[in-house]
Amino acid sequence: MSLFLVLFGIIAFVIAYATYGAWLCKQWGMDPSKTTPAHRLNDGVDYVPAGAPVLLGHHFASIAGAGPIVGPIAASVFGWVPVTLWIVIGSIFFGGVHDFGSLFASVRHDGKSVGQIIEANIGKSGKKLFAVFAWLTLLLVVAAFVNVVAGTFVSTPQAATASLLFIVLAVVFGFAVYRSGVPLSIGSVIGVILLFACIWIGMKFPLVLSKNTWIVLILGYIFVASVTPVWILLQPRDYLNSYLLYAMIGGAVFGLIMYRPGIQLAAFTGFNVNGQYLFPLLFVTVACGAISGFHSLVGSGTSSKQVDKEGDTKLIGYGGMLIEGVLAIIAIITAAYISGDKFGELLKVGGPVNVFATGVGTFMTKIGIPMSVGKPFTALAISAFALTSLDTATRLARFIFQEFFEDETKEQQSILATNRFVSTAITVALGGWLAVAGWQKVWPLFGSANQLLAAIALLSLAAWLANSGRSNKMIIYPMIFMFIVTLTALILLIKTNLAAGNFILVIFGVLLFVLALILIKQSYKILSGETKKSTSV
Fold first, then answer.
1. How many CB atoms lie within 10 A of CB 228?
2. For an engineered disulfide with 322, which of 13, 93, 214, 499 has Cβ 3.0 to 4.6 Å away?
3. How many CB atoms lie within 10 A of CB 95?
């Protein structure tokens, strides 16, 4: 059954990419001859053209992280059938459309964020509300991933050594390919070889430091990574790191084919499991495995500024989400093939990442890779992508912060809008403060906040398509569903925290709920056709 699940998912995704993805391109009027913002606004820092393979590596590494692993495993309490169905259906008709649309719309809006798209198609007040919400959500991402990465480096010091070597390798690769004329093909071969050499060195020479020390070092790193030109670190590091994930997915799939593990997890456990309701919690918990608002920030934040040709957006946006769907299916299988007692033990010791690493390491033994190598390699790959998501989130928060203070009516912009060092310093300082001073108190809201981001991103796409005279039915239905899911989840969360006396969480939940209602109200007339803002993109 496990072999059927992974093959079913891969075949469904390939068919969807060739058919539904092509249909979306036609409906949206994709034009490969258009000059992209990466060329038109090339500044050598944020707007820098990147070939499709390089940009797919950056985009996929940024959106993957630990989300498609943690989400499906956490949602496995409802059984493997509903989780798998939502991963496949969600990736094709929800997440893929959301990611592809966000990237494409941003390219058509000069590489601006979802907030700017909202301003152009709904109004300035909508943009301001979205910017505040998105920036606060990204602060949560920064705080959480700083803790995750620092904790991983403490528990797996081999990952720390390898990650530091990855950074050095990425800088060398960037200068070699972008400034010294080394062909990408040759640089890739050498880079991948050195990438795995870094892993070997990491296993031989683990770097042991305290968690607080790692937090300080990581905060310093993400500051530098957010302000440096993308070709120096972001593009090459994410591109090379993507090979880690491709290797991990490939090893897991071939391992599954050879191992053919049975399914121990129940197909369906019920609509109410220990007080947790399948609707809406399944659709909030799986998150990145089917649809994630964070992806819209990546697509409209960093990726859209690097698109070389408009035709590349299908591969990067839609294709990237479908690859992530494969990873999510593998994740649910790693939870489904083991007994309940062992699953609980692995979960208690190291969380969902430990469950995943143990499962993938076990599958790889059937293709000749020892468990002592397969499991640490999987853990190293996950930590590398957690770090990737972290510094991408920091750069995105910087973009949104600057956009919030931009005023096109003024010739002289404020320092908060123009100085990337100031905006980054504020973001890193507040994110770091949350990381060490109680980010856990508001973390339960992140799942709902992330999915609300997805619903709002779909709202912005629907408004843009309506304004430009294009069909938006492929957006409307997923958008309505995600708003229903998110608002229902927020009501349950507010109710639970009110009963528990967690009034800070209640206030945050109410603010998110009100924000969603305001944006829905502001966009209703546009979506219903009563009014139409002029747009030429």
1. 17
2. 13
3. 31
Q: How many CB atoms lie within 10 A of CB 51?
A: 16
CB-based contacts of 529, cutoff 8 Å, min separation 6? 466
Q: Residue 272 is inside which H or E element, if any?
A: strand 272-273
CA–CA gap between residue 37 and residue 42 (Å, rounded) = 7
* Number of separate domains in the chain: 1
DSSP-derived 3-state class of residue 276: strand
The answer to whether the beta carbons of residues 477 and 313 sit under 8 Å apart is no
CB 158 within 8 A of CB 202: yes
pTM: 0.86
Cβ burial, residue 478 (10 Å; 0-12/13-18/19+): buried
Alpha helices for 320-445 (secondary structure H): 320-336, 340-364, 371-405, 415-418, 420-436
Q: Whole-angstrom Cα distance, residue 177 to residue 183? A: 6
Spatial contact of 256 and 2, defined as CB atoms under 8 Å apart: yes
Tokens for 370? 């020892």
3-state secondary structure of 307: strand
Residue 533 lies in a domain: no
User: Does a structural domain hold residue 287?
Assistant: yes
How many Cβ atoms are within 10 Å of 421's Cβ, its own excluded?
12
How far apart are the two ends of the chain, measured CA to CA in Å?
47
Give the CATH number for residue 47: 1.20.1740.10
- Residue 535 domain-assigned? no
Per-residue pLDDT of the chain (537 residues; tens, 9 = 90+): 788 899 999 999 999 999 999 999 999 999 989 999 999 999 887 899 988 988 998 888 788 777 788 889 889 999 999 999 999 999 999 999 999 999 999 999 999 888 888 888 877 877 888 888 788 888 878 887 788 788 778 877 888 888 889 889 989 998 898 888 899 889 989 998 998 898 889 888 888 999 889 999 999 999 998 888 878 887 788 788 888 888 888 999 899 889 988 888 899 999 999 888 999 999 998 988 999 998 999 999 889 999 999 999 999 999 999 999 999 999 999 988 886 678 778 777 667 778 888 899 999 999 999 988 888 888 778 877 778 888 888 888 888 888 777 766 666 666 666 788 888 999 999 888 888 865 555 556 677 888 888 998 999 899 899 888 888 999 999 999 999 999 999 898 888 889 888 787 788 788 888 888 888 887 777 777 666 655 556
Bridge-based pairing state of the strands 276-277 and 272-273: antiparallel
Contact between 397 and 139 under an 8 Å Cβ cutoff? The reply is yes
> Residue 534 domain-assigned?
no
Instruction: Print the domain residue range for 472.
Output: 2-528
Residue 487 and residue 516 in contact, taking contact as beta carbons nearer than 8 Å = yes
